[in-house]
């Protein structure tokens, strides 16, 4: 049953009507999306996002969520199998995060707004800190 859930995909539709099909595990990194899935059962599998989340911004959010979902899955796998190959350490993930938010200020601002709406607190905090560093 757990395998079936991890293979399910969700379609996220952004403000400019572009659709992104993502694994449910990746989409559920966002507490907002996780709650929508829980409350509405997403029979059609499509979640409409607000107007301020464009395709470019959503692509970055998905990239972040995919990396963090795979790091979480990898650490669970590591704990279960006691292997360390292909597993991102906390330090590796922190380095990836620092490189990830190295972008132009407008994109960073839009990413922060999307992260706040989607309740991805760690991403929202990172963008706020980066913007503060720029200012």
Quickly describe the structure.
The protein has 135 residues and is mostly helical.
Count of DSSP strands: 3
Helix content: 55-70%
Average the pLDDT over all residues and give the rounded result.
Answer: 84
| Strands in their spatial order, largest beta sheet | 2-1-3
Count of structural domains: 1
- Sheet of most strands: 3 strands, mixed
Q: Segments where pLDDT lies below 50 for 5+ residues? A: 1-6, 77-86
Just name the CATH architecture.
2-Layer Sandwich
Discrete helix count: 7
What letter string, H or E per element, gives the SSE order?
A: HEEHHEHHHH
Percent strand: 5-15%
CATH superfamily grouping: Potassium Channel Kv1.1, Chain A
> What is the rounded distance between the termini?
49 Å
Text of the CATH class: Alpha Beta
Please state the structural category: mainly alpha
Annotated CATH topology: Potassium Channel Kv1.1, Chain A
Shape: globular
Radius of gyration: 15 Å
Keywords: Ubl conjugation pathway
Family: Belongs to the SKP1 family.
Protein name: SKP1-like protein
Pfam families: Skp1_POZ
Notable traits:
mainly alpha; 135 residues; single chain; Potassium Channel Kv1.1, Chain A; disordered N terminus
Outline the fold blueprint.
Layout lengths: L1 H6 L1 E5 L5 E5 H4 L3 H10 L5 E3 L6 H27 L8 H11 L4 H13 L3 H14 L1
Family: Belongs to the SKP1 family.
Subunit structure: Part of a SCF (SKP1-cullin-F-box) protein ligase complex.
Pathway: Protein modification; protein ubiquitination
